[in-house]
Amino acid sequence: AHRLVVLVSGTGSNLAALLDAHDDPAFGARVVGVVSDRAGVAALDRAREAGVPTAVVALRDFPDRDAWDRALTEAVAVFSPDTVVLAGFMKLVGAPFLARFGGRTVNTHPALLPSFPGAHGVRDALAYGVKVTGCSVIVVDAGVDDGPVVAQEAVAVADDDDESSLHERIKVVERRLLVDVVGRIARDGLTVDGRRARLGRPAAD
Ligand code: GAR
pTM for this one? Predict the structure, then answer.
């Protein structure tokens, strides 16, 4: 099966959805490793419970960001991924990582990019006052949440939403979208042509 390595920083509910999906052979992909930039997070427990090997590569254990990024790249490379999934991974990956895994790393984000990139996509959408937000799966590139969009889904903002109620509603949609997209990448491939990404293999010509 297509090998997935999932990068996490926190709760790991998106990871849990991928772990649930990978028991179904029809999904076409397996989570073969989980790498966190933080020790002691719930996402690591979820991986261990599923019997998936984990690694922690914390920024503070390295002299600088570049050394951390190289160690992260190595920790991911150990698992020989076909696709890397950033699922609530709250750090930017750097040039060494992208040199190795660029074009086959996707990130899930709780807003309709290019609106509301960064660490507070839900809070920023609420503060702006938009009536519709949602979630995006993108191909990771060197910018902050600005890689080619693979898939998006909309979620309506309710008048009485706060950050946590809205984020929980987005996450229900987000988990389903991420599992769907990752399965389709595993089975059908991902084609990136400039800013345009689509599911499926490049047309043969
Ligand atoms: C998800 O909503 C994900 O989109 C978001 O963090 C949450 C992680 O939840 N990521 C970002 O905001 C990245 N910019 P989880 O740990 O339960 O999967």
Answer: 0.97
159: Cβ contacts below 8 Å, ≥ 6 apart: none
CA 150, CA 166: separation in Å to the nearest integer?
22
Give the residues of the chain that fall short of pLDDT 70.
Answer: 205
Among the residues of 36-149, which ranges form H helices?
A: 42-49, 65-77, 95-101, 121-128
106 labelled ligand-binding: no
Measured CA to CA, the distance from residue 44 to residue 144 in angstroms comes to 25
167 catalytic, yes or no? no
Whether ipTM exceeds 0.85: yes
Distance 189 CA to ligand 1 centre (A): 24
Check if the beta carbon of residue 155 is closer than 8 Å to that of residue 173: yes
